[in-house]
Amino acid sequence: MTALPGTPESTETPEPGTLCTERLLLRPPRESDVDAIHEACQEAEIQRWTVVPVPYRREDAEYFVKDLAVNGRRTGENLVWCVIERATGALVGTQGLVRCPGRPGAAEIGWWATKEYRGRGYTAEAARAVARHGLTELGLRRLEWVAYVGNEGSRAVAERVGFRFEGTLRSFAEQRGEYRDTWIGGLLATDLAG
């Protein structure tokens, strides 16, 4: 077996569900990712804009990797990827694709990026791969991006990927017991950018 181009000396065969881009490898989370996920989710901006528990404990990272990601992939209802920089093997973030209950063919996309790897275009590159996978290989008809109002970084990524802004949903998404206003955007196969 040979290493993937640009990956650090890996002899592994990509596991099922793996997506590749020029600079990134998106693969299902592994037990070896727990510490990196735990460390990343200590960061204030990730806690501010996502639904991760606060405080974020190592047990939360273990649940994410060993339960949420495994069961989500088994059912096909919640696909999770660790986003890995191919050149270094470093975790740069995660991506998720969650089916929308009661709406066949629709799923919500979400992501977070580690502080050290923001601003390099990695999140948009990964989101584009996940969107293309969902809309072409999984046959979804619609992807939705939903973010708390004010999350300009997430909105910029969504726009780069090709999501069309569709409005503001008042008191829509719950975060740690509080309902917050959210932005929503939609992406169809015909909207896929580059």
Layout of helices and strands:
Layout: E1 19-20, E2 24-27, H1 34-40, H2 44-49, H3 58-75, E3 78-85, E4 91-99, E5 106-113, H4 122-137, E6 142-148, H5 152-161, E7 164-175, E8 178-187
Helix pairs in contact: 1-3, 4-5
How would you sum up this structure, described in words?
- The protein is built from five helices and eight strands; from the N terminus they run E-E-H-H-H-E-E-E-H-E-H-E-E.
- The chain has a domain at 19-141: Gcn5-related N-acetyltransferase (GNAT) (Aminopeptidase), CATH 3.40.630.30.
- The chain is globular and about 40 Å long.
- The chain has helices at residues 34-40, 44-49, 58-75, 122-137, 152-161; strands at residues 19-20, 24-27, 78-85, 91-99, 106-113, 142-148, 164-175, 178-187.
- Helices cover 29% and strands 31% of the residues.
- It is of the alpha+beta class.
Keywords:
194 residues, disordered N terminus, alpha+beta, Aminopeptidase, eight-stranded mixed beta sheet, 8 strands
Please give the largest β-sheet: 8 strands, mixed
- Cα-atom radius of gyration: 16 Å
Q: What name goes with the CATH superfamily of the domain at 19-141?
A: Gcn5-related N-acetyltransferase (GNAT)
Which ranges are low-confidence, i.e. pLDDT below 50, for 5 or more consecutive residues? Answer: 1-11
Architecture of the domain at 19-141 in CATH? 3-Layer(aba) Sandwich
Overall pLDDT, averaged?
91
Number of strands: 8
- Strand order within the widest beta sheet: 1-2-3-4-5-6-8-7
CA(first)-CA(last) distance = 31 Å
Order of helices and strands: EEHHHEEEHEHEE
Determine the fraction of residues in helical runs and give it as a percent range.
25-40%
